Amino acid sequence: MTVLVARRTRRPRAPGVVLAGVFLVALLVAALFPGLVTPLDPLRAQVSDALQGPGLEHPFGTDQSGRDVFARVVHGARYSLAVGFGASLIALLAGLVIGVVSGLSPTPVDTVIGRIIVIGMAFPEFLVALLVIAIIGPGPSSLVAAIALAATPAYARVARSQTRVVVRASYVTAAVSLGVPRWRSVLRHVLPNTLGPLLVMATIGVGTAIVSAAGLSFLGLGPAAPTPEWGVILSEGRNLLDRAPWVALFPGLVITATVISTSVVGRALRGGARAQR
Amino acid sequence: MRLLGHLGGVLLIVWGAATAGFLALKLIPGDPVEVMLGVQAQVSEETKEAIRRDWGLDQPVLVQYLQYLGRLVRGDLGQSYQLRQPVAETIASQAGATLALTGLALLFAVVIALAAALFVRGRRWNSVVGLLELVLVSSPTFWIGLVLIAVFGFGLHWFPVTNGSGFSAQVLPAVTLALPIAGILSQVLRQGLEAAATQPFALTARARGIGYARLVGRHTLRHAAGDGITLSGYILGSLLGGAVLVETVFGRAGLGRVTLRAVIDRDLPVVLGMIVVVAVVFAIINLLVDLAHERLDPRLRVAS
After folding, report:
1. Greatest distance between any 2 Cα atoms in chain A
2. Rounded CA gap, B146 and B148, in Å?
3. ipTM, 2 decimals?
4. pTM
């Protein structure tokens, strides 16, 4: 990773990538230390401040019980990033294991697993997530499980095809014929070469997972109402659209900016990985 | 013969989805009869036994599975726990509203994307459109809906917000559903047009003396459309997944609302029915996509 960065500094990076990176870092700070970003309590209601428009005191305005929307969005970063990163990580690991095992298995087994992956990919991720929640019931941890499971087939597919390519590569054949044990070749050759593309996928996947999570909790299937989660804030904002559109506007803008940033950074990583080859 | 293979693929996907759904239903903790009756229900053990017998829940799982497949073949999706009516009826009664919404959304998306792909020329405009596409693709669908309601409903009063009827009530939900799809479709179409314009056949056509409009109309757009059609599965997915959110945002009836209700109430026969219906739709669309590809790109026909 450090090598990759060092090589790329010679070429000036696009300002968009820098901007996206800065935004993601700011978001990470908000998730880890929300107190540094805003001194206000996201749950404290102050009726005298209700429904104030965006201004100096409340940059994103206030909601119907006078809670500061900016503070709620800042504190919400924690939930959304946790779900986004958590679900993507689980999906990546599950996909990696399934894909590598399938790619290394004898052809009949590999074909069957490949078929299952294709069927899994055929379903829209959001509907799969809904189905999983129907089975295990709603709640914050169901959210992570549902989104992870829905995303797994895509990772498994890439891991499988990557594994099949690496196993047949001449340097693996050479290593095996020189007497390197198969498990070592898997650890040293197959896993690192498969992990790279999956990590790039996951960078973009974090954004998608955050949107899915916001959607599911907007529908009432995630954390319960007073929690400052982005989807929850948006669903509260839905009832205030005529009086206080800012309650719904700003969390959505932040989600959009997050997704754009992850995909811009993801694309830059992919470009960097290609240039390195 | 190849059509037979295609049909086999369709059946395989539907069977796989139905089986996965059935397994999931069997894995769920708790007694389906309890779920069906609700938590507060005071019902004697005898009545529960009777319900179990009615639904075939006293049979071995394998027998239940075969019976389930047998019913599916006959188009019977089972009974809803909560609504006390056949699942097929529930789905059929709501399908019209969702079909109208998604159909209109698809039309809007294609028109917007085509307009962007055909009429946007020049570097500056291309980068503006590119940025717009990125925003649309990255925004949560339901948030786009909320913004549209705030601006065009409450702000400008152009469209009814809720309880409207007729075409004007359809516009905002359909546009909401259409915009993210328009964004990705326009990305793919514009890239496809650009790529096709550098192909040898484009140069030949230009050398023969045909104008830009004819080149696009007769040659490069066909290639770009091929790339667009590959997205069909993705588009269908965002239409169906988006319908759940858009119907909730705009307070409309439809399949999305039925699915969401069923998920919240854990009305699993309805959820399972939706899975099977979605699988059938998906498999058929995939089949049509394969066939359309062959029609659009003469090279594929020769290769096969």
Report:
1. 78
2. 5
3. 0.82
4. 0.83
